[in-house]
Amino acid sequence: MTQPIRRGSRRLTFLVLAAGAGFFAMLQSLITPVLPTIQHDLHTSQNTVTWVLTAYLLSASIFTPILGRVGDMVGKERMLVVSLVALALGCLLAAVAPSIGVLILARVVQGIGGAVFPLSFGIIRDEFPAARVSSAVATISAIIAAGGGLGVVLAGPIVAALGYRWLFWIPMAVVGLTALAAHRLVPESPVRTPGRINWAATVLLSGWLVALLLPISKGATWGWTSGRVLGLLGLAVVLLLAWLVAEVRSANPLIDMRMMRLPGVWTTNLVALLYGGSMFAIYAFLPQFVQTPTSAGYGFGASVTQAGLLMLPMLVGMFVAGLAAGRLEARFSAKAQLATGAAFNVLAAAMLTVAHDTRWQVGVAGALVGVGIGLAFASMANLIVATVPPGQTGVATGMNANIRTIGGAIGAAVVSSVVTAHPQAGGIPREAGFTTGFLLLTGIAVAAALAALLVPSGRRAAGRRGRARATGAELATELAPAAR
User: Fold this and answer.
1) Cα(474)–Cα(476) distance, rounded to whole angstroms?
2) Which of 146, 138, 473, 478 is nearest to 338 (CA)?
């Protein structure tokens, strides 16, 4: 294979990847605190405005693994530019949206940018020396984790100073420049997996993801026992089974099930599912807890900006732990870091269950959550990258991110049902609801920590990686005639 001509240094390539991944992660949480403002400005209902979040979630869940796979096939740099351009255009459309319908459409377009996660990991694996891959993957993971937290911190000050539309204007400018930089500076992909798009598998994958995530995100509004929720969940099961059958039987699978069955992959994905459930629920409900008026008998009556500042210890913990993760791997394996990150999450959720009466307690618990997330994000990405063949890095890391999102949607929905089960007068949740919710999160975090112990390590992992490389070579040989 002819090596491509490099158009930029690895440092510039890394900066481009960090900017793209960081701003997409930030857009995941940047909008959540200002939904009431958007609802008032666009004259819509509370039920309708939540589609601003739901549309983004559904779009990202569909495009992240699919474009990761396309990037493995046709070139990661090319698909990175496509994803960043879509993200910038989505931000532009959202910034000028005259109605809630246009804003929801804009969020669908923004969701295409979710592919920057797997594409970034794939480019790092292709372009960086082996000795630097773990550190670079860990740093990008730290930026992704911190970006999600940064959105909560920045939303209040930006809206107060400039208005909510600047939550889209600023990312549009930065992401647009990042797309141009990606086109000019990021080298063409030297590693590609031959094949063609399996459209049947693509439709089935998109179908079961939507049929699963839509009722989970809307269950509280529609009613968990309503016909819409139960019908969509049943449809999700049918489409999932059909997708699995189609992938197993296909000579040109969208996602190779042999890869997904590797112990290093399925165990890490199991941790991602459980960890996502606890992590996203804390993201969603800790700011809500601190913004609860003190007249409710708990909470701090914080504004959106003050709630963001209380999340700063979490943000710092994420970033510092993520940066340290890659450098620690020479002494502590990715599995050890994943288990440690999960243990920090257990400790944080347990602390919130029994100690949430003062701001410093919430700050300390947030810092523990941040350290756990920083270690977990970095180690999960490194475990997947180290296990799968180079030609399947994009699709494998994309599915891992997707599974974490699914876990987050389920965790947030379940905790929401618990927290709001018996509200006070005025609809404010009782403190007991939050306490029970945090206790539930502790249980989920314990399950994630136990799952982390199942991840292969040492010689077993090395052997699995060898077999994964062999699987990738066999698959490429099998698909070569189809590609021709």
Assistant:
1) 5
2) 138
Using one digit for the tens of pLDDT, what is the confidence trace for 396-437? 888 888 888 888 888 878 888 888 777 887 778 888 888 998
Q: Where do we find the tokens 């307690």?
A: 361
Say if residues 29 and 283 touch (Cβ distance below 8 Å): yes
CA atoms of 219 and 217, how far apart (whole Å): 6
Q: Which residues contact 61 (CB under 8 A, 6 or more apart)?
A: 111, 114, 209, 210, 213, 402, 405, 406
| Measured distance CA(269)–CA(248) in Å, rounded | 19
* Confidence check: pLDDT of 394 > 90: no
Closest CA to 374 of 366, 363, 362: 366
Q: How far is it, in rounded angstroms, from Cα 52 to Cα 197? A: 30
How far is Cα 35 from Cα 32, in angstroms, rounded to an integer? 6
Q: Distance between CA 428 and CA 214 in Å, rounded? A: 25
Give pLDDT tens digits for 273-318.
Answer: 998 888 777 877 888 888 888 888 888 888 878 888 888 898 888 8
Neighbouring CB atoms inside 10 A of 45's CB total 9
- Please tell me the distance from the alpha carbon of residue 419 to that of residue 438, in angstroms, as a whole number: 9
CB neighbours (10 Å) of residue 359? Answer: 14
Task: Give the Å distances, CA to CA, from 414 to 220, 270, 349, 430, 444.
Answer: 9, 18, 15, 16, 11
Q: What is the mean pLDDT of the chain?
A: 84
> In b/e form, how buried is each residue of 258-292, taking b as 16+ CB within 10 angstroms?
bbbebbbbebbbbbbbbbbbbbbbbbbbbbbbbbb
- Output the pLDDT for position 460: 46
Tokens of 330: 């020479």
Residues 6+ apart with CB under 8 A from 303: 156, 291
Rg over alpha carbons for the chain, rounded to the nearest Å, is 21
Residue 102 is predicted with a pLDDT of: 94
Within 10 angstroms of residue 468's Cβ, the number of other Cβ atoms is: 22
Residue 99: CB atoms within 10 A of its CB come to 11
Q: Which residue type does 35 have?
A: L
What average pLDDT does this structure show over 107-131?
88
Using CB atoms within 10 Å of the CB of residue 11, give its burial: 0 to 12 exposed, 13 to 18 middle, 19+ buried: exposed
pLDDT one-digit tens code per residue, 437-452? 899 999 999 999 999 9
Q: Show the tokens assigned to 36.
A: 């009431």
Asked if 447 and 411 count as a contact pair (C-beta separation under 8 A), the reply is no
Task: Give the C-alpha separation, 337 to 334, whole Å.
Answer: 5
